[in-house]
Amino acid sequence: MSDLQRVAMKQDNADGAVRIIFAHGAGAGLQSDFMQYFALGLALKNIEVVRFNFPYWQKFMDTGVRRPPNRMAELEHCMRTVAQQFNDNKPLYLMGKSMGARVAFRLADELNASAAIALGFPFHPVGKPEKLRLDDLDNSCDQNLIIQGTRDNFGKPEEVAGYNLPENVRLQWIEHGDHSLEPTKRSGLAREQLWQNAIEQIEKQVRY
């Protein structure tokens, strides 16, 4: 329990028919507008959402001192620890924003998740398209989901079209969205419209 004493955890709609464990990205924790909007929106769809802070972010919240993300093994350990707090048979999905999506895909088999879901998958670091992270996508789930903005600098449509993605990955593009699925002002769209579109795609993915 010592890990969770350092890692804040928030549970939305504990009575939901399925459970999504939702990991944040590198630059914001569980209380970001993005994380809260998706968690509460999905809770209204009869889905339990469990969000948490990775250790480095919790230390930032405690001390006010910025720290780099933990190593991947530590990120995986944290998400694994959160998942192991539940011993029921509720269907499980692992979801993450950016960095958290990498963790979700990597742990899906180990945690017997029905699927992994990415909100903005970081196919490569910004400005380094040669450093692909496609190996993170390999798991044996029937069908995973990546929701990607068409303006995402971590993987745009013309780049991703050339990737050899696993057959069990469904890719859903969100028009005008960036890495956080936010539109330009010129589009005339509010970010909530894009986020709600993504929530509807997630709802289609889960099996109640």
Topology at a glance:
Elements: H1 2-6, E1 9-12, E2 18-23, H2 33-43, E3 47-52, H3 55-63, H4 72-83, E4 92-97, H5 99-107, E5 115-119, E6 144-149, H6 157-160, E7 169-174, H7 191-205
Parallel strand pairs: 2-3, 2-4, 4-5, 5-6, 6-7
Antiparallel strand pairs: 1-3
Helix pairs in contact: 2-7, 4-5
3D structure, described in words:
The structure is a single chain. With 208 residues, the chain is of the alpha/beta class. Helix content is 31%, strand content 19%. The chain contains 7 helices and 7 strands; from the N terminus they run αββαβααβαββαβα. The protein has helices at 2-6, 33-43, 55-63, 72-83, 99-107, 157-160, 191-205; strands at 9-12, 18-23, 47-52, 92-97, 115-119, 144-149, 169-174. It has a 7-stranded mixed beta sheet with strand order 1-3-2-4-5-6-7, with helices on both faces. β6 (144-149), α6 and β7 form a beta-alpha-beta unit. α2 crosses α7 and α4 crosses α5 (99-107). The longest helix has 15 residues, at 191-205.
